[in-house]
Request: fold
Amino acid sequence: MSKKQTVTTITPLFSAETIGNRIREIGKEISDDYAGATPECPLHLVVVLKGAFIFAADLARAITIPCTIDFIHASSYGSERTSSGNVAIRHNLNVAGRHLLLVEDIIDTGLTMQQITAELRALQPASLKICSLLDKPEARKHPVAIAYTGFIVPNTFIVGFGIDHNERYRELPSLGILCS
Ligand code: IMP
Ligand code: MG
Reply:
């Protein structure tokens, strides 16, 4: 007996080279903006797991000022390709008085970023900005001020470069649109 198979294809969106070039540009912009950072008062990158892990690894190496790195875990998507409207946030951060840069993979409805920023602001950082590899402005329901954006993308489902669908495709070196 053969099971019914759905054919999934990925339409290329941004190549590894294009992504790498853009990350180097953002890294320079961030390094210029935080030029006053010192080893005693570094820029603190707060990486949103899991989706931003590859972006953050490249971004950290494109930043030329002193920085430190920490992680926060957020999950808002279930198995479907729509926002669940429920965000679970887990972290163990001590960020009072520090300059924070949240590093995210995609900003879609904006709910995840709104909840993470509310939670972090309550911990009284010195400053808080957002850097997102991708922005889907057409999907926005909750306003978010993004300081650094890699690429604006259409309201489609994107995978690759750390970004998954049901935990698949994170390992792909480029970004594409999942079609099925
Ligand atoms: P938001 O809370 O609706 O802004 O959703 C943000 C989170 O949903 C992102 O951090 C991603 O993890 C996930 N997400 C949003 N759009 C996509 C997509 O196109 N592909 C994979 N994950 C996505
Ligand atoms: Mg995410």
User: Anything to note?
Assistant: The chain has a mean pLDDT of 93.
